[in-house]
Design a protein that fits this description.
Blueprint: H1 2-12, H2 21-34, H3 44-61, H4 64-91, H5 106-152
């Protein structure tokens, strides 16, 4: 909101640069429309009251007995689905996963560990390069924004 106020004050000033004159005209038109109140259509209040009354009468025609019946049916359906799900879970055979070595010798395990750590180091190095590029771009953007802010002053 503060930025909007600053823009309004800026465009109300007579010393607006030529390239912003079109924007100045737009802001002045906005300011002139800001205080105007839009006229309401004729008989709007009466039409709204009729529509609300119609909605109220429709709501009263649905009996609460029908609602209770559907609450009971949906409750029983939910309980049935829950019971079926629990039954399937209980009757399904449970297989325990057995822990076993993937390497035959300690040398194979050492070589596999080195390979995995080397792969991790490569990924980390790529990530670090990308992070450095992002930091460089961020610094450049900050410099441009700083120079723009200095131009405004």
């Amino acid at each position: 909101m503060e930025e909007e106020q600053q823009l309004m004050l800026f465009f109300q000033d007579e010393q607006v640069p030529d390239e912003l004159q079109a924007d100045r005209a737009l802001f002045q038109q906005y300011l002139s429309l800001k205080d105007e109140k839009a006229p309401l259509p004729a008989a709007l209040e009466q039409r709204l009251e009729c529509r609300i009354d119609a909605w109220e009468s429709n709501r009263r025609t649905v009996s609460s007995g029908q609602h209770r019946k559907w609450y009971w049916i949906s409750g029983w359906a939910a309980a049935l689905i829950l019971a079926i799900g629990i039954g399937f879970h209980q009757t399904r055979p449970h297989t325990d996963v057995e822990m076993r070595d993937t390497c035959e010798t300690p040398e194979q395990a050492y070589a596999e560990t080195r390979r995995a750590l080397k792969q991790l180091a490569e990924v980390m190095e790529k990530s670090e390069d990308q992070l450095q590029k992002a930091n460089k771009a961020n610094r450049q953007i900050k410099e441009v924004l700083h120079s723009i802010n200095n131009l405004k002053k």
